[in-house]
Structures are given as C-alpha cells and as structure tokens.
Amino acid sequence: xxxxxxxxxxxxxxxxxxxxxxxxxxxxxxxxxxxxxxxxxxxxxxxxxxxxxxxxxxxxxxxxxxxxxxxxxxxxxxxxxxxxxxxxxxxxxxxxxxxxxxxxxxxxxxxxxxxxxxxxxxxxxxxxxxxxxxxxxxxxxxxxxxxxxxxxxxxxxxxxxxxxxxxxxxxxxxxxxxxxxxxxxxxxxxxxxxxxxxxxxxxxxxxxxxxxxxxxxxxxxxxxxxxxxxxxxxxxxxxxxxxxxxxxxxxxxxxxxxxxxxxxxxxxxxxxxxxxxxxxxxxxxxxxxxxxxxxxxxxxxxxxxxxxxxxxxxxxxxxxxxxxxxxxxxxxxxxxxxxxxxxxxxxxxxxxxxxxxxxxxxxxxxxxxxxxxxxxxxxxxxxxxxxxxxxxxxxxxxxxxxxxxxxxx
Length: 409
Hints:
The chain is of the alpha+beta class. The chain has helices at 12-16, 19-28, 45-52, 80-87, 97-105, 111-134, 140-145, 147-157, 167-175, 184-210, 216-225, 237-267, 270-278, 280-294, 326-329, 364-381, and strands at residues 32-34, 39-42, 57-58, 137-139, 300-305, 309-311, 314-316, 321-325, 386-387, 406-408.
C-alpha cells in the first residue's frame, strides 16, 4: 500500500487534522517518497530525532555544491531578495558559518539572560491580558498571542515601539515561502517584504552605529566593529540583517501558534483545562510541553541529502530532500504512551517541536518563558474563558496555526 495520497498538505481538511494520516504513514513504513514535492517523508520519532543530528544532511547545500552540481534548478532571479535574506540566516546555514553566527547570537539567549527578561515578559503579558479581559474577550490570537512575542523580540532587538506593527506582516509574508511549493503570488509578497524589512534594518543598524544602546543589534554591531577580535568570527551586515529577521520570525511564529492552538486544545478538553486551572503552578510547566507536543506549531522541517545514504533499506540519493514530520513524530505511540490523548501532567515528553542537533531552537528558553507568562495570566484572570466561535485553521501546513481564536472572558 502506498500511503502518500493521504498526505495532502494543501487540502484544508488535512491541515485541520493531519494526525490520522500520520498514523497511516507510520504504520506503512519508515520512509515514503512523496512525488508532488520530490521529498522523502519521515514519520517516526526515532528517525526524525536521528536525522536531525545526522551531519550527512544539511539545511543548505550551497556551502559544498552549486545548484547545478547538486542537481537542483536555481531559484528564479526575481526571488533573489528573499533568498539573500533567508540564506544568510543561521537556520539555513551549516558549519562553519552556522557555528560562527550561533556563537555570537547565543549570548543573548543564555538561561541567565532570558531570566533577566522575565519581569519585562510578565509585565507585557499582564498588560495584554488585562486589556483583553477588560474588553470581555475577542480574538485571542490577535490581541494576546501575537503581540507578546513580537514585543519581546522587538525589545531585544531595540526596534522602536512605533515601528513594531510593521513586523508581523513582514514576517507572515516571508514565512509563506516555507510552505511546500509556494506559488508566485506568495513569492512576490515574500520578495516585497524582504526588500522592505532589509531596508528598514539597514537604517536601524546605521542609527545604532551612531547611537548604540543596550539592545542585541547594538551588540552585533559592536562585534562587527571590534578590530581587536578575529575578523572571520564577526557577522557581515547582511548576516546581521538576516539574523534579526530570523530571530523575529522564529522568535514569534512558534509562540503565537502554540498559544492559539494550545488554547483551542484546552477549550476542547475541559477536564484537562479544569485540572490546570485548579493547580496552575504545579501543572503549567508540563502543560506547556504537552501542548507543543499535542498540536505541533511547526509540522515539517526539511533537510537536504548531501551524500548518498542508506536509510531504512531505502537509498536516499545526494540532491534529494527529506521532510521530517514533527507533527507525526510527536504522536508516535512507539515513544509516547497514548499519544492522541492530551495529558497535561505528562512527564516523559521528549517532543521534537524545538528540533534537535546543531539547529535546536536557540530561543527555546525564551519561548517557554513567554508561554508560561501568557498562559499563567489567562488562567488566573480569565477563569471562565469560553470559545465564542469554532476557529478555522489557516491555509499553512508547515507553519500550522489558526486564522483567529474568538473567545469570551
């Protein structure tokens, strides 16, 4: 049996509930070729975890091969602004460039640094939830889930408050290119957003050079301008720009969708929600992990095959691509007991929602802090929160989230 026809990432019904199809994929084998994208689908937890750490796979291939050498068609010239921006970010780089950039940026995301942000994060969450509850509710996604992580990462980058409404539309347009086989309209929006965001950040960098602050952009500039250090260890201006965009996109897309998807899940599981409301301090840490596992915000992560490999009895040739199905891995019964049941007290929970290996999410501690803050505030201040309407899923599958989440407090 070929189970890949069940994998329909462009169909609304599949996006709304991909988990039965994942179960079929897992039952049918460890690797499946999906002709519409030319990818190898990997549905099992152990294999996803292993391949995330396999250095024979890469987020990019251009550090070793040209497009032609790798058997790939170069992207259209019209898409160049998006690829220039995207390809200089550390998520799409491999060592040694990835190592160099991550070493510099990681200083802003150490547990100690993140903890210093805790009062700011809790203050922002409290203000957003207070305003939301005072209005009697509304769209939780637009009024709480989105503004909090955007405000936090903008604060870290030193982006003025008046400019922050620009960030989410730019991010959404750019992230459209991470879906499978994006169309030309999506590409045009991403190119326009890439040009605008790049121009904005060039101006911000120029301003911070003249008037440095305590923000991350100023710190990256200082490393760039430090003539006493190793020039090869610094970031170029393009790498600075791409890093800022990546931190914004990765720093809030997953948090936004974990918040909205998570509250949808809780409101559909009233017994579990009641248990969480009864003991929020005790349950919230494991609840956050379980919500990320149960309805994973990033469903698929791609890697290029850099050399011929044998995997599960199947030859994966150089130049092919694997699609690591995070959503399936997180519901794998071989790793999680009763995986289709929400268990907010689940202690053994090695979900792959933050990835693994050298590309493990740098902002995971910050994401957890933001999620604890917003969920904690809503649990305390909106104890009678209810769905006002059944939410609809957005069209994206790779980055999977709701269009909106209307609730009453």
